[in-house]
Amino acid sequence: MNTESFFEKIYGEIYNYVADANMWVSIGMTLLKIVGIIIASRIVVSLVQTAVNRVFQHRQGAKIHLDQRRVDTMRVLVNNIVQYTLYFLAILMILQLVGIDLKPVLVSAGVLGLAVGFGAQSLVRDIITGFFIIFEDQFAVGDVVTINNMTGTVQEIGLRITRVRSWTGEVHIFPNGTITQVTNFSLQNTLAVVDVSVAYEENLGQVEEVLKEVLAKAQTELDDIVAEPQILGVHALGPSEVVMRVTAECKPNTHHGVNRNLRAMIRTEFTKRGIQIPYPKIVTMSGKAQGQA
To answer: For the Mechanosensitive ion channel MscS domain, which residue ranges apply (predicted)?
Structure first.
């Protein structure tokens, strides 16, 4: 066979292959099916996520009341799981359409997953711990927490890591598997505690009346106070002062601001009423006075 006849044969085979109408129809049908699978998967994901959002929607007057923080966290988690699952199934269907046998792929994926599981035990532990953090609502985005002796505001909760921003701006990243102890300051109401020092010369009855007026005013002006402030009475007797303690129940993690506002309001009212803030006093006696005594 000479060179010319060889190229003619190759050309004929290519021409017959390209001119095969059935092949192009098959390719076109396959492409249409792939496009249909992609469009259908996106539509199904959108519909399912809409249904999930509606299920987790906050309803006024519902018989079962759930914490909205937990509802929002679970809604995002369920939407992500639905999205990844449906897209994974769509990829498997596309692979099957293009003629790839799924059995070896799934077996290889299982063996690879087992190998990765043994080699990345810390990663698996992080993911499992992250799932239980979200599922049990230990803390949520925006909560003020102390994690492993580090205090800050939660910026992000993932299945693998948690980001916490301290009040000075540093961002701390914790692998979920290393989180051994969490203190959440945002779940329950907090208590503002203010110790008020007055001089021994002051009338404690008058001081209590002034404090009652200040606390009543604070309850109406400070939105973070959720219950009537209390005067606990004399807390301590110092070298030059009597310490009286007042408390106020506040919204979660707002007690620091309430403390500052109460101190300012009490100081202003004491100045108006002439109530003295204690200060150290020194009594000196001359030698002549001692001799006369």
So the answer is: 123-186
Q: Are the CB atoms for 198 and 206 separated by under 8 Å?
A: no
CATH value at residue 263: 3.30.70.100
Sign of CA dihedral 39, 42, 44, 46: negative
- The answer on 90 and 11 residing in a single domain is yes
Domain extent at residue 245: 190-273
Predicted confidence (pLDDT) per residue in 72-131, tens digit: 666 776 777 788 788 888 888 888 777 777 677 666 666 666 655 665 677 778 878 887
At residue 109's C-alpha, the angle toward residues 104 and 113, to 5°, is: 150
Q: Which secondary-structure segment (H or E) carries 160?
A: none
| Residues β-bridged to residue 152 | 145
**How far is it, in rounded angstroms, from Cα 129 to Cα 121?**
12
Q: Is residue 193 within 8 Å of residue 247, measured between CB atoms?
A: yes
Please tell me the pTM assigned to this model.
0.54
Residue of 84 and 194 predicted with greater confidence: 194
Residue 283 covered by a domain: no
Residue 21's pLDDT is 66
Residues 177 and 196 occupy one common structural domain: no
CA 137 to chain centre: 9
C-alpha distance from residue 263 to each of 106, 149, 192, 249 (Å): 67, 29, 11, 15
Q: How far is it, in rounded angstroms, from Cα 31 to Cα 212?
A: 79
The DSSP letter of residue 225 is B
CATH of the domain at 177: 2.30.30.60
